[in-house]
Amino acid sequence: MIYPTRLAVIGAVAGAPLALALAVALPGRWQLALLWPIALLLLVLADALLGAARATAELALPRSAAIGAPLDVPVIVGIAGQRPPRRVEVALSPDPLVATEDDGRIGVALLGGEGIGALTLTPVRRGTAAFRDLWLRWTGPLGLVWHQRRLAGERRLAILPDIQAIQDRGAQLFQRHALQGLVAQADRGDGTDFHALVEFRAGMDRRAIDWKQSARFHKLHAKEFHSERNSQIVFAIDAGRQMSEPVAGMPRVDRAVIGALLCGWVALKLGDRIALSAFDARPRISSGFIGGAAAFPELQHLAATIDYSNEETNYTFALTTLAARLTRRSMIVLFTEFTDLTSADFLVRAVARLMKKHLILIVVLRDEELETIVDRAPETPADVTRAVTAAALLRDRLLVLTRLRHLGAHVIESEHDRVGDRLVHGYIDLKRRNLL
Protein backbone atom coordinates (compact mmCIF):
# COMPACT_ATOMS: atom_id res chain seq x y z
CA MET A 1 0.00 0.00 0.00
CA ILE A 2 1.24 3.50 -0.89
CA TYR A 3 -0.20 6.77 0.41
CA PRO A 4 1.10 10.36 0.82
CA THR A 5 2.89 11.56 3.92
CA ARG A 6 2.04 14.66 5.91
CA LEU A 7 4.75 16.55 4.01
CA ALA A 8 3.10 15.80 0.67
CA VAL A 9 -0.31 16.90 1.95
CA ILE A 10 1.10 20.15 3.36
CA GLY A 11 2.90 20.79 0.09
CA ALA A 12 -0.29 20.31 -1.89
CA VAL A 13 -2.29 22.57 0.43
CA ALA A 14 0.42 25.28 0.44
CA GLY A 15 0.56 25.36 -3.36
CA ALA A 16 -3.18 25.80 -3.83
CA PRO A 17 -3.28 29.54 -2.84
CA LEU A 18 -0.26 30.29 -5.04
CA ALA A 19 -1.86 28.57 -8.01
CA LEU A 20 -5.12 30.44 -7.43
CA ALA A 21 -3.31 33.77 -7.15
CA LEU A 22 -1.40 33.12 -10.37
CA ALA A 23 -4.59 32.22 -12.22
CA VAL A 24 -6.29 35.42 -11.03
CA ALA A 25 -3.27 37.62 -11.86
CA LEU A 26 -2.69 36.09 -15.30
CA PRO A 27 -6.01 34.81 -16.57
CA GLY A 28 -4.61 34.33 -20.05
CA ARG A 29 -1.89 32.05 -18.71
CA TRP A 30 -3.94 30.12 -16.21
CA GLN A 31 -2.22 26.92 -17.36
CA LEU A 32 0.84 28.00 -15.35
CA ALA A 33 -1.20 27.40 -12.20
CA LEU A 34 -1.06 23.66 -12.95
CA LEU A 35 2.73 23.52 -12.80
CA TRP A 36 2.83 23.20 -8.99
CA PRO A 37 0.41 20.26 -8.57
CA ILE A 38 1.92 18.49 -11.61
CA ALA A 39 5.44 18.91 -10.25
CA LEU A 40 4.36 17.67 -6.82
CA LEU A 41 2.61 14.69 -8.40
CA LEU A 42 5.75 13.78 -10.35
CA LEU A 43 7.84 14.02 -7.18
CA VAL A 44 5.38 11.77 -5.35
CA LEU A 45 5.53 9.20 -8.16
CA ALA A 46 9.33 9.34 -8.20
CA ASP A 47 9.42 8.89 -4.43
CA ALA A 48 7.07 5.92 -4.72
CA LEU A 49 9.29 4.26 -7.32
CA LEU A 50 12.57 4.97 -5.52
CA GLY A 51 11.28 3.78 -2.16
CA ALA A 52 9.73 0.53 -3.41
CA ALA A 53 11.27 -2.48 -1.66
CA ARG A 54 10.56 -6.00 -0.46
CA ALA A 55 9.92 -6.15 3.27
CA THR A 56 10.32 -9.05 5.70
CA ALA A 57 9.84 -9.18 9.45
CA GLU A 58 10.06 -11.89 12.08
CA LEU A 59 8.51 -11.69 15.54
CA ALA A 60 10.59 -13.91 17.84
CA LEU A 61 7.86 -14.96 20.29
CA PRO A 62 8.78 -17.38 23.09
CA ARG A 63 6.76 -20.55 23.64
CA SER A 64 5.06 -19.13 26.73
CA ALA A 65 4.85 -16.13 29.03
CA ALA A 66 3.66 -15.57 32.60
CA ILE A 67 0.70 -13.38 33.49
CA GLY A 68 1.78 -9.88 34.54
CA ALA A 69 5.44 -10.31 33.57
CA PRO A 70 6.57 -7.77 30.92
CA LEU A 71 8.13 -9.45 27.93
CA ASP A 72 10.52 -7.84 25.42
CA VAL A 73 9.95 -9.56 22.07
CA PRO A 74 12.61 -8.99 19.38
CA VAL A 75 11.42 -7.90 15.93
CA ILE A 76 13.88 -8.63 13.10
CA VAL A 77 13.19 -6.38 10.10
CA GLY A 78 14.68 -6.54 6.60
CA ILE A 79 14.03 -4.08 3.71
CA ALA A 80 15.52 -5.13 0.37
CA GLY A 81 15.59 -2.42 -2.33
CA GLN A 82 17.77 -0.05 -4.32
CA ARG A 83 17.58 2.62 -1.64
CA PRO A 84 16.58 1.01 1.64
CA PRO A 85 15.27 3.40 4.27
CA ARG A 86 17.13 4.28 7.44
CA ARG A 87 14.12 3.79 9.68
CA VAL A 88 10.96 1.70 9.61
CA GLU A 89 7.88 1.76 11.82
CA VAL A 90 6.48 -1.54 13.09
CA ALA A 91 2.96 -2.13 14.43
CA LEU A 92 1.50 -5.33 15.88
CA SER A 93 -2.17 -6.28 15.69
CA PRO A 94 -3.79 -6.12 19.16
CA ASP A 95 -4.96 -9.04 21.26
CA PRO A 96 -7.23 -8.70 24.33
CA LEU A 97 -5.01 -11.03 26.38
CA VAL A 98 -1.93 -8.80 26.01
CA ALA A 99 -1.28 -5.14 26.82
CA THR A 100 1.25 -3.28 24.66
CA GLU A 101 3.12 -0.01 25.00
CA ASP A 102 2.27 2.76 22.49
CA ASP A 103 -0.49 0.59 20.98
CA GLY A 104 2.08 -1.94 19.82
CA ARG A 105 4.06 0.54 17.70
CA ILE A 106 7.85 0.93 17.65
CA GLY A 107 10.45 2.50 15.39
CA VAL A 108 13.39 0.40 14.21
CA ALA A 109 16.63 1.93 12.91
CA LEU A 110 18.03 0.16 9.85
CA LEU A 111 21.61 -0.27 8.71
CA GLY A 112 21.98 -1.61 5.21
CA GLY A 113 18.27 -2.45 5.18
CA GLU A 114 18.36 -4.58 8.34
CA GLY A 115 17.58 -3.85 11.96
CA ILE A 116 16.27 -5.27 15.24
CA GLY A 117 13.74 -3.69 17.59
CA ALA A 118 11.87 -4.84 20.69
CA LEU A 119 8.14 -4.85 21.40
CA THR A 120 7.13 -4.81 25.07
CA LEU A 121 4.18 -7.12 25.74
CA THR A 122 2.49 -7.60 29.11
CA PRO A 123 0.14 -10.62 29.38
CA VAL A 124 -2.96 -9.77 31.40
CA ARG A 125 -5.03 -12.98 31.20
CA ARG A 126 -4.39 -16.66 30.73
CA GLY A 127 -4.95 -18.19 27.33
CA THR A 128 -3.35 -18.24 23.90
CA ALA A 129 -2.74 -14.83 22.34
CA ALA A 130 -2.82 -14.68 18.54
CA PHE A 131 -1.09 -11.90 16.61
CA ARG A 132 -2.30 -12.29 13.04
CA ASP A 133 -0.86 -9.17 11.42
CA LEU A 134 2.47 -7.37 11.58
CA TRP A 135 2.55 -3.99 9.84
CA LEU A 136 5.62 -2.22 8.42
CA ARG A 137 5.82 1.24 6.92
CA TRP A 138 8.62 3.52 5.78
CA THR A 139 9.00 6.69 3.74
CA GLY A 140 10.66 7.10 0.37
CA PRO A 141 13.93 9.01 -0.11
CA LEU A 142 12.04 12.31 -0.57
CA GLY A 143 9.74 11.76 2.40
CA LEU A 144 6.58 12.26 0.32
CA VAL A 145 5.19 8.71 0.27
CA TRP A 146 4.53 6.06 2.90
CA HIS A 147 5.20 2.46 1.83
CA GLN A 148 3.15 0.09 3.97
CA ARG A 149 3.23 -3.71 4.08
CA ARG A 150 0.96 -6.13 5.93
CA LEU A 151 2.62 -9.40 6.88
CA ALA A 152 -0.03 -11.95 7.84
CA GLY A 153 0.72 -15.11 9.78
CA GLU A 154 -0.16 -17.24 12.79
CA ARG A 155 1.90 -15.89 15.66
CA ARG A 156 0.77 -17.45 18.94
CA LEU A 157 1.88 -16.96 22.53
CA ALA A 158 0.78 -19.27 25.34
CA ILE A 159 0.00 -17.23 28.45
CA LEU A 160 0.31 -19.23 31.67
CA PRO A 161 0.03 -18.51 35.38
CA ASP A 162 3.24 -17.55 37.13
CA ILE A 163 5.08 -20.84 36.64
CA GLN A 164 8.00 -19.90 38.86
CA ALA A 165 5.65 -19.27 41.78
CA ILE A 166 3.93 -22.63 41.13
CA GLN A 167 7.23 -24.50 41.08
CA ASP A 168 8.51 -22.72 44.20
CA ARG A 169 5.29 -23.48 46.09
CA GLY A 170 5.30 -27.05 44.82
CA ALA A 171 8.88 -27.51 46.02
CA GLN A 172 7.91 -26.19 49.46
CA LEU A 173 4.99 -28.60 49.73
CA PHE A 174 7.10 -31.46 48.41
CA GLN A 175 9.79 -30.75 51.00
CA ARG A 176 7.24 -30.41 53.80
CA HIS A 177 5.80 -33.87 53.14
CA ALA A 178 9.29 -35.27 52.73
CA LEU A 179 10.15 -34.04 56.22
CA GLN A 180 7.05 -35.77 57.48
CA GLY A 181 8.25 -39.03 55.92
CA LEU A 182 5.49 -39.25 53.32
CA VAL A 183 7.48 -38.58 50.17
CA ALA A 184 11.19 -39.03 50.66
CA GLN A 185 10.84 -42.59 51.85
CA ALA A 186 10.03 -45.42 49.47
CA ASP A 187 7.01 -46.09 51.71
CA ARG A 188 8.54 -49.38 52.63
CA GLY A 189 6.19 -51.66 54.49
CA ASP A 190 3.23 -49.65 53.27
CA GLY A 191 1.39 -50.00 50.00
CA THR A 192 0.42 -52.71 47.55
CA ASP A 193 3.38 -52.97 45.15
CA PHE A 194 6.02 -55.58 45.91
CA HIS A 195 9.37 -53.97 46.72
CA ALA A 196 11.79 -56.60 48.03
CA LEU A 197 12.13 -59.83 49.97
CA VAL A 198 13.89 -59.13 53.28
CA GLU A 199 14.74 -61.03 56.41
CA PHE A 200 11.94 -60.86 58.93
CA ARG A 201 12.57 -58.43 61.78
CA ALA A 202 10.75 -57.70 65.00
CA GLY A 203 7.93 -55.24 64.46
CA MET A 204 7.14 -56.34 60.91
CA ASP A 205 3.66 -57.54 59.98
CA ARG A 206 3.57 -61.32 60.33
CA ARG A 207 1.06 -61.51 57.48
CA ALA A 208 3.85 -60.42 55.12
CA ILE A 209 5.91 -63.58 55.83
CA ASP A 210 6.65 -65.57 52.69
CA TRP A 211 6.56 -69.15 53.98
CA LYS A 212 7.88 -70.75 50.79
CA GLN A 213 10.96 -68.55 50.69
CA SER A 214 11.43 -68.93 54.44
CA ALA A 215 11.48 -72.72 54.05
CA ARG A 216 13.99 -72.39 51.25
CA PHE A 217 16.43 -70.23 53.21
CA HIS A 218 15.68 -71.82 56.59
CA LYS A 219 15.01 -68.31 57.93
CA LEU A 220 11.92 -66.21 58.15
CA HIS A 221 11.63 -63.86 55.14
CA ALA A 222 8.91 -61.32 54.54
CA LYS A 223 7.69 -59.38 51.54
CA GLU A 224 8.26 -55.63 51.67
CA PHE A 225 5.85 -53.39 49.81
CA HIS A 226 5.82 -49.73 48.83
CA SER A 227 3.16 -47.32 47.64
CA GLU A 228 1.96 -47.83 44.12
CA ARG A 229 3.47 -45.53 41.49
CA ASN A 230 2.46 -44.80 37.94
CA SER A 231 -1.12 -44.04 38.99
CA GLN A 232 -3.31 -42.20 36.49
CA ILE A 233 -4.62 -38.79 37.53
CA VAL A 234 -7.02 -36.78 35.35
CA PHE A 235 -7.57 -33.08 36.09
CA ALA A 236 -11.06 -32.36 34.71
CA ILE A 237 -11.70 -28.60 34.71
CA ASP A 238 -15.18 -27.19 34.26
CA ALA A 239 -14.76 -24.10 32.04
CA GLY A 240 -18.45 -23.21 31.82
CA ARG A 241 -20.22 -19.95 32.59
CA GLN A 242 -20.18 -20.24 36.37
CA MET A 243 -16.47 -21.06 36.45
CA SER A 244 -15.72 -17.94 34.40
CA GLU A 245 -17.06 -15.68 37.15
CA PRO A 246 -14.34 -13.87 39.12
CA VAL A 247 -13.49 -14.57 42.74
CA ALA A 248 -11.31 -11.92 44.39
CA GLY A 249 -10.45 -10.48 40.98
CA MET A 250 -9.57 -13.78 39.25
CA PRO A 251 -11.92 -16.15 37.39
CA ARG A 252 -12.63 -19.45 39.10
CA VAL A 253 -11.27 -21.38 36.13
CA ASP A 254 -7.91 -19.62 36.50
CA ARG A 255 -7.73 -20.62 40.14
CA ALA A 256 -8.58 -24.17 39.11
CA VAL A 257 -5.77 -24.16 36.53
CA ILE A 258 -3.27 -22.91 39.13
CA GLY A 259 -4.34 -25.64 41.55
CA ALA A 260 -4.14 -28.32 38.85
CA LEU A 261 -0.65 -27.22 37.80
CA LEU A 262 0.58 -27.18 41.40
CA CYS A 263 -0.79 -30.65 42.16
CA GLY A 264 0.34 -31.90 38.74
CA TRP A 265 3.92 -30.79 39.45
CA VAL A 266 3.95 -32.75 42.73
CA ALA A 267 2.29 -35.79 41.14
CA LEU A 268 4.82 -35.91 38.31
CA LYS A 269 7.64 -35.72 40.86
CA LEU A 270 6.10 -38.71 42.66
CA GLY A 271 6.02 -40.80 39.49
CA ASP A 272 2.33 -40.64 38.63
CA ARG A 273 0.93 -39.95 35.17
CA ILE A 274 -1.17 -36.87 34.43
CA ALA A 275 -3.89 -36.00 31.91
CA LEU A 276 -5.86 -32.79 31.44
CA SER A 277 -9.48 -32.38 30.41
CA ALA A 278 -11.65 -29.27 30.04
CA PHE A 279 -15.32 -28.95 29.17
CA ASP A 280 -18.35 -26.70 29.19
CA ALA A 281 -21.39 -27.64 27.09
CA ARG A 282 -19.18 -30.28 25.45
CA PRO A 283 -15.63 -31.55 25.89
CA ARG A 284 -13.08 -28.96 24.73
CA ILE A 285 -9.68 -30.40 25.68
CA SER A 286 -8.80 -34.03 26.21
CA SER A 287 -5.12 -34.92 26.46
CA GLY A 288 -3.28 -38.18 26.81
CA PHE A 289 -1.33 -39.18 29.90
CA ILE A 290 2.16 -37.82 30.44
CA GLY A 291 4.74 -38.86 33.03
CA GLY A 292 8.01 -37.64 34.47
CA ALA A 293 9.00 -34.24 35.83
CA ALA A 294 10.33 -33.25 32.40
CA ALA A 295 6.77 -33.41 31.02
CA PHE A 296 5.54 -30.52 33.18
CA PRO A 297 6.03 -27.87 30.40
CA GLU A 298 3.67 -29.89 28.23
CA LEU A 299 1.06 -29.75 30.99
CA GLN A 300 1.54 -25.97 31.20
CA HIS A 301 0.89 -25.47 27.50
CA LEU A 302 -2.19 -27.67 27.62
CA ALA A 303 -3.53 -25.55 30.49
CA ALA A 304 -2.97 -22.38 28.44
CA THR A 305 -5.46 -23.61 25.82
CA ILE A 306 -8.36 -23.74 28.30
CA ASP A 307 -10.60 -20.87 27.26
CA TYR A 308 -13.32 -18.95 29.09
CA SER A 309 -16.89 -19.82 28.16
CA ASN A 310 -20.40 -18.45 28.65
CA GLU A 311 -22.13 -21.78 28.04
CA GLU A 312 -23.79 -23.93 30.68
CA THR A 313 -21.90 -27.01 31.81
CA ASN A 314 -23.07 -30.40 30.55
CA TYR A 315 -21.78 -32.85 33.18
CA THR A 316 -23.40 -35.91 31.61
CA PHE A 317 -21.82 -35.42 28.17
CA ALA A 318 -18.39 -34.41 29.47
CA LEU A 319 -17.92 -37.02 32.19
CA THR A 320 -19.38 -39.85 30.10
CA THR A 321 -16.94 -39.02 27.31
CA LEU A 322 -14.09 -38.89 29.82
CA ALA A 323 -15.02 -42.27 31.33
CA ALA A 324 -15.10 -43.87 27.87
CA ARG A 325 -11.47 -42.85 27.32
CA LEU A 326 -10.14 -44.33 30.57
CA THR A 327 -9.16 -47.97 30.26
CA ARG A 328 -7.99 -48.48 33.86
CA ARG A 329 -8.84 -47.18 37.30
CA SER A 330 -7.88 -43.54 37.61
CA MET A 331 -8.16 -40.67 40.04
CA ILE A 332 -10.36 -37.93 38.56
CA VAL A 333 -9.92 -34.48 40.10
CA LEU A 334 -12.98 -32.46 39.10
CA PHE A 335 -12.91 -28.65 39.46
CA THR A 336 -16.43 -27.27 39.20
CA GLU A 337 -19.02 -24.88 40.58
CA PHE A 338 -22.82 -25.06 40.86
CA THR A 339 -25.49 -22.67 42.07
CA ASP A 340 -28.78 -24.50 41.48
CA LEU A 341 -30.04 -27.93 42.43
CA THR A 342 -30.98 -28.85 38.85
CA SER A 343 -27.43 -28.70 37.47
CA ALA A 344 -26.11 -30.19 40.71
CA ASP A 345 -28.41 -33.19 40.27
CA PHE A 346 -26.81 -33.92 36.88
CA LEU A 347 -23.41 -33.65 38.56
CA VAL A 348 -24.35 -36.14 41.28
CA ARG A 349 -25.68 -38.65 38.76
CA ALA A 350 -22.59 -38.38 36.57
CA VAL A 351 -20.29 -38.81 39.58
CA ALA A 352 -22.28 -41.84 40.73
CA ARG A 353 -21.55 -43.57 37.42
CA LEU A 354 -17.84 -42.74 37.63
CA MET A 355 -17.61 -43.99 41.22
CA LYS A 356 -18.17 -47.57 40.06
CA LYS A 357 -14.65 -47.73 38.66
CA HIS A 358 -12.68 -44.58 39.50
CA LEU A 359 -11.63 -42.51 42.49
CA ILE A 360 -13.29 -39.08 42.43
CA LEU A 361 -11.96 -35.94 44.12
CA ILE A 362 -14.17 -32.87 43.68
CA VAL A 363 -12.74 -29.41 44.28
CA VAL A 364 -15.02 -26.39 44.77
CA LEU A 365 -14.30 -22.90 46.02
CA ARG A 366 -16.06 -21.62 49.10
CA ASP A 367 -18.63 -18.96 48.27
CA GLU A 368 -17.21 -16.33 50.59
CA GLU A 369 -19.58 -13.68 49.27
CA LEU A 370 -22.64 -15.63 50.44
CA GLU A 371 -20.99 -16.43 53.77
CA THR A 372 -20.25 -12.73 54.30
CA ILE A 373 -23.90 -11.81 53.62
CA VAL A 374 -25.12 -14.43 56.11
CA ASP A 375 -22.67 -13.41 58.84
CA ARG A 376 -23.23 -9.66 58.48
CA ALA A 377 -25.65 -8.09 60.96
CA PRO A 378 -28.71 -6.81 59.00
CA GLU A 379 -29.43 -3.10 59.14
CA THR A 380 -32.35 -2.79 56.74
CA PRO A 381 -35.20 -5.07 55.61
CA ALA A 382 -33.34 -5.60 52.33
CA ASP A 383 -30.38 -6.97 54.29
CA VAL A 384 -32.67 -9.51 55.95
CA THR A 385 -33.98 -10.65 52.55
CA ARG A 386 -30.47 -11.02 51.19
CA ALA A 387 -29.35 -12.95 54.26
CA VAL A 388 -32.27 -15.39 54.02
CA THR A 389 -31.63 -15.97 50.30
CA ALA A 390 -27.91 -16.47 50.87
CA ALA A 391 -28.57 -18.92 53.69
CA ALA A 392 -30.90 -20.93 51.43
CA LEU A 393 -28.25 -21.09 48.69
CA LEU A 394 -25.60 -22.23 51.17
CA ARG A 395 -27.98 -24.87 52.51
CA ASP A 396 -28.57 -26.22 48.99
CA ARG A 397 -24.82 -26.22 48.39
CA LEU A 398 -24.19 -28.17 51.59
CA LEU A 399 -26.89 -30.67 50.61
CA VAL A 400 -25.20 -31.36 47.26
CA LEU A 401 -21.74 -31.73 48.81
CA THR A 402 -23.18 -34.11 51.43
CA ARG A 403 -24.78 -36.25 48.71
CA LEU A 404 -21.43 -36.43 46.91
CA ARG A 405 -19.66 -37.51 50.08
CA HIS A 406 -22.28 -40.19 50.73
CA LEU A 407 -21.60 -41.58 47.27
CA GLY A 408 -17.97 -42.06 48.28
CA ALA A 409 -16.49 -39.07 46.47
CA HIS A 410 -13.86 -37.00 48.25
CA VAL A 411 -14.73 -33.31 48.39
CA ILE A 412 -12.45 -30.34 49.01
CA GLU A 413 -14.17 -27.02 49.65
CA SER A 414 -11.34 -24.54 49.73
CA GLU A 415 -10.71 -20.84 50.15
CA HIS A 416 -9.86 -19.14 46.87
CA ASP A 417 -6.23 -18.48 47.83
CA ARG A 418 -5.51 -21.98 49.23
CA VAL A 419 -6.98 -24.25 46.59
CA GLY A 420 -3.56 -25.51 45.43
CA ASP A 421 -2.33 -26.30 48.95
CA ARG A 422 -5.55 -28.04 49.94
CA LEU A 423 -5.51 -30.12 46.75
CA VAL A 424 -1.90 -31.24 47.24
CA HIS A 425 -2.63 -32.22 50.85
CA GLY A 426 -5.68 -34.19 49.74
CA TYR A 427 -3.74 -35.95 46.98
CA ILE A 428 -0.86 -36.89 49.31
CA ASP A 429 -3.33 -38.19 51.89
CA LEU A 430 -5.13 -40.39 49.34
CA LYS A 431 -1.82 -41.68 48.06
CA ARG A 432 -0.56 -42.47 51.56
CA ARG A 433 -3.76 -44.40 52.23
CA ASN A 434 -3.27 -46.41 48.99
CA LEU A 435 -6.61 -45.30 47.55
CA LEU A 436 -5.31 -44.29 44.12
Automatic annotation (TrEMBL):
Residues 199-369 form the DUF58 domain. InterPro entries: DUF58, vWFA_dom_sf. It comes from the Bacteria. Keywords: Membrane, Transmembrane, Transmembrane helix. The chain crosses the membrane at residues 33-53. This is DUF58 domain-containing protein. It comes from Sphingomonas lycopersici.
